[in-house]
Amino acid sequence: MNQNLYKYLIRLGDDSLIIGHRLSEWCGHGPILEEDIALTNFALDFIGQAQSILEYAGKVEGAGRDADDLAYLRYEHDFRNALLVEQPNGDFALTMMRQFLFDAFRKPLFEALTKSSDEQVAAIAEKSLKETKYHLKHSSEWIIRLGDGTEESHKRTQDALDTLWRYTDELFYEDETDKALEAAGIIPSISKIKEEWEKTVNNVLTEATLTLPTNGWSYGKGRAGLHSENLGYILAEMQYLQRAYPGAKW
Amino acid sequence: MSNEELERQFQEKIDNEIKIEPRDWMPDAYRNLLIRQISQHAHSETVGMLPEGNWITRAPSLRRKQILLAKVQDEAGHGLYLYSACETLGVDREDTIDDLHSGKAKYSSIFNYPALTWADMGAIGWLVDGAAIMNQIPLSRCSYGPYARSMVRICKEESFHQRQGYEIMTHLANGTPEQKAMAQDALNRFWWPAMMMFGPSDNDSKHSAQSMKWKIKRFTNDELRQQFVDATAPQAELIGLKVPDADLKFNESTGHYEYGEMNWDEFWQVVNGNGPCNKERLDARRKAKEDGMWVREAAAAYAKKQEKKEKRA
Amino acid sequence: MSENANWPLWEVFISSKAGMSHKHAGSLRAADAKMAIENARDVYTRRSEGTSIWVVKTNEVFASDPNDADAFFDPANTKAYRHPTFYVIPDGVKNM
C-alpha cells in the first residue's frame, strides 16, 4: 500500500467530513430559510466529498475498510483534519469566516489536484472543485456583506477573524508525506497554494473592511492527530449508533 | 358589479375547475381560509425540520446522513414554496412567521412529539410523510393556483421521503433483535399521532364543508384517514411489525381496514400547546429568527450602500 | 420586525436546459441580486432543474389586469385564420 497516499487522503477526507458535520448542525437553525437551505447544500457537498475520498483511502489502505468504517470506527487520534474545521459554529459570522478561510484554501488545492498523477485523486478533485468554487463565491460574498454591513456585523466578523486566524497556518502544514507525494506528482507544492490563499484572503478581507490580525502565532497539530477538545464531542455524536450497536447494519 | 354577482362568477370558475389567481377577485373568507391553511402548512414544514434535524449529526452511516440532510433541507424548501404562495395573498412572510412564534398560528401537532431513537427517522418518513402525502396529493388540484402549483412541486419532491423512511424501518425490522425492537417502539409511538394528522373526525370538523365547496379540500378528514390505514397497515405486516391497535382488522366486505378509537383529548392538548415538545420547537424557531436578525440587517445595510454607490457612479 | 431587516421579494425564472425559455419557478427573499440568484440556485435547482436563472424584484413586475381579460384576450379567439388547420388543401398534398 502507498502509506503516504493513504495518510494524505485521510487528511483531505477528514477535513470534508468534519466541516460537513459542523455545517449540518445548522440545518433547521439558519438565519433565514434561504440560507438554511444553502448551508445544508454545503454540508451535503462536504459529506459527499468525505464519502468518496475516504472510500478511496480505504482502497489504498487495502485492509478492507470502507468510508463508513473510517468515519465511524476510528478514534480521536486517528483523525487528521485541521483544527480550523472542528471549531464550533459560533454565530453566523464565525461559521462564514471558518468557511471562507477554508474555501480559499480548498479552491487552489483542488485546482492543482485535478492535475494529479493519480487518476482517482484527479477525478475526485475535478468534482469537488466545482462545488468548492461555488462555496468560495458564496462565503466571500457573505464575508463582504457582513464586514461592510452594520457596525454590529462588522464587529462580529472581525471577532470571528481574530478567533480563527491562529488555525489558518496549519492548512499549509507539510511533512515527509507531502514531500514524497509532491515528488511523485500526486499533490502540488503547498507554497503555491498558500500564495493563492493569501491573495484571495487579502482581497476579500480588504473589500470587507476587515483588518488582518497581526498575531502570527499559530497553533495546529491536527494533521498529527492532536485535536482541540471539540473533536471528541463531534465523534461522540457522530459515532454513537455505530459504537452502541457494534456490527449492526443500518 | 355587485358582490353577489362577483361571488357567483367566482363560484362558477371553481365549479368549472378554473384556477383562482392572486389578482382575481375572491371573497374575503376564501382569502382568509387560504392564508390560515397555507401558513399553517408552511409552519408545519419548518417546524417539521426539527425532530429529524436532531438526528442528522448522529445518522449511522454517511449514506443515511446525506439522505436525512437532503430530506430535512427539502422541508425547508417546501416551507419556502408555501410561504411564497401565502405571500401572493397579500400577507408578509415575516408577519406569518411572527404569528407562529407568538403562538397565534398553529402547525401540525405531530412535530410536538420527540424523535427519541434512530428508528423514529424511519417512522417519521414512513408514517408522517406517508400521511402528509395523502393530504397533499389532492391539494395539488386545489382551486387556488399558487397553492396548487407549490403542491405539485412538493409532491414530486416528497416522493422519496416516505420511501427512505420505509427503507430505514425495513432494515431495522430485518436487523438485530435490538434494532427490531427499536422499530416496533417507534411504530408504537408514531402510529396514533400519525392517524390524528388528518384532523378531527368529519362530524367535528368546522371548516370542512366550506373548504370542500371552494375546492381547497377534496376529501374529508375521515376519507383520507381511511386511505392511510388501508395503505399503511399491510406495509407494517410486510416487514413484520405490529400496528398498535387491537381493533385493527380488514373487513372483507367493504375492502377497508377498521380501526380503533383515537385519543382526541390528547390531540387537543397537544394542539393547544401541551405536547411533549411544543415549547422546544417554538423556542428553536424563535431563536433561529432572533439570532439571524443581525445577519439580515447587515445584508440589507450592505445592499443599500451598494445601491447608493451605483447611483453615484 | 424591523424594516431594516426585511429583504425584498424576488421572482425566480429557470431555464431547464440550454435553448429552453425561462419559466417562472417561484419566489424568495434576498438582500441583493447576487444573493437572489444564489438562493434561487439552492432553493429551485436542488434536483438539476436548471441551467440558467433569472431573478427580478417582485415589485418591478407589471401584470395585466384580470378585469381586462375579456378585452385583452377574447378577441383573438375569433381569428381562426391564424391557424393552419383553418385551411382546406387537397388530399395527397405532401410537406405542407
Short description:
The complex is a heterotrimer of chains A (250), B (313) and C (96). With 250 residues, chain A is an all-alpha fold. Chain A has helices at residues 3-24, 33-61, 67-72, 83-86, 92-113, 119-147, 151-164, 176-183, 190-207, 230-238, 240-244.
Account of the 3D structure:
The complex is a heterotrimer of chains A (250), B (313) and C (96). By secondary structure, chain A is mostly helical. Chain A has one domain: Ferritin, core subunit, four-helix bundle (Ferritin, Up-down Bundle). In chain A, 66% of the residues lie in helices and 0% in strands. Chain A has 11 helices and no strands. In chain A, helix 5 packs across helix 7. The longest helix of chain A has 29 residues. The mean pLDDT of chain A is 96. Chain B is mainly alpha-helical. Chain B has 12 helices and 2 strands. The N and C termini of chain B lie far apart (51 Å). Chain C has a domain of 61 residues: Phenylacetic acid degradation B (Ubiquitin-like (UB roll)). Chain C has 2 helices and 3 strands. Chain C has a 3-stranded antiparallel β-sheet, with helices on one face. In chain C, strand 1 and strand 2 form a beta hairpin. The radius of gyration of chain C is 21 Å and the shape is elongated. The interface between A and B is large, with 48 and 48 residues.
Highest-level CATH class of the domain at 3-63 in chain C:
Alpha Beta
Distance between the termini of chain C: 63 Å
The span between the termini of chain B is 51 Å
What is the CA-atom radius of gyration of chain C, in angstroms?
21 Å
- Cross-sheet strand order for the largest sheet of chain C: 2-1-3
What is the mean pLDDT of chain C?
91
Order of helices and strands of chain C: EEHEH
Chain oligomer state: heterotrimer
Order of helices and strands of chain B: HHHHHHHHHHEEHH
Which consecutive residue ranges of chain B, at least 5 long each, have pLDDT under 50? none
Query: Unreliable runs of chain C, pLDDT <50, ≥5 residues?
Result: none
- Quote the average pLDDT of chain B: 95
